[in-house]
Amino acid sequence: MWIDSHSHLNDQAYQDDYPAVIKAAVDNGITAMLVVGYDLDSSRRAIALAKEYPMIWATVGVHPQDAKSWNTDAAAELTGLLAEPKVVAVGEIGLDYHYLDSSRDEQLKAFLEQIQLAKEYNKPIIIHDREAHQDTYTVLNEGKLGPAGGVMHCFSGSRELASGFLKLGLHISFAGPLTFTNAEKLRSVAAEIPLNRLLVETDCPYLTPHPFRGRRNEPLRVALVGEKLAEVKQLPVDRVMEATIANTKALFRI
């Protein structure tokens, strides 16, 4: 039994077979899945899936790569989506300096305004941080983070960065890269995260865990992430499973 705390079953990669993918996850002990929005269309799709399946919960948000689309109309629509009963978080939101499909200024504006929406609705945030570690930390450290907290999605930073985010009250989530053969540094970071602050995710259809790299990822593979996390923390798998389930339920109030 696991919870996939971050999936993109709203992605076109699943448009032809999402019922089979969801069934396979449930049949393999995945008790709940969060479907995470990354723009308005995908946020609407996440909500539709949550309404269709009792074990699915939705989040809504505009990803930093799409921040150029953020305006007053987008903010108004996202506000409306936040009123849906199975929407449990704002995300994924944040900063991404790798591609810069949206400028840094556009990303920062969308990030700050969506954090404010999360505070108004008392929702946690799901934070995307790629090659923007210092700016992401600075934003959150300046008192912008709301009392509902949030999670650093698919964490890839250093031990020092993880410590800083933990001090802000954030959770840390690991995905398929934790299992990659060349990820010893990441595993050393994961080993030091307190058990009560850990989540596991797939970020599917991306970041498929070893030994299935190169294939489309699916929620059922979150178990591989959890098992690797138990290994690096030198804990029984059941203990890590129970803790990550409890952490996910508490953070997202599901």
Topology summary:
Blueprint: E1 2-7, H1 18-27, E2 30-36, H2 40-52, E3 56-60, H3 72-82, E4 87-96, H4 104-121, E5 125-130, H5 133-144, E6 150-152, H6 159-167, E7 171-174, H7 184-190, E8 198-200, H8 222-233, H9 237-252
Parallel strand pairs: 1-2, 2-3, 3-4, 4-5, 5-6, 6-7, 7-8
Notes on the protein architecture:
With 254 residues, the protein is α/β, with parallel strands linked by helices. The protein has one domain: Metal-dependent hydrolases (TIM Barrel, Alpha-Beta Barrel), CATH 3.20.20. The protein has 9 helices and 8 strands. The protein has helices at 18-27, 40-52, 72-82, 104-121, 133-144, 159-167, 184-190, 222-233, 237-252, and strands at residues 2-7, 30-36, 56-60, 87-96, 125-130, 150-152, 171-174, 198-200. The chain has an 8-stranded parallel β-sheet. The longest helix is centred in the middle third of the chain and has 18 residues, at 104-121. The relative contact order is 0.14. The model has no long low-confidence stretch (mean pLDDT 97).
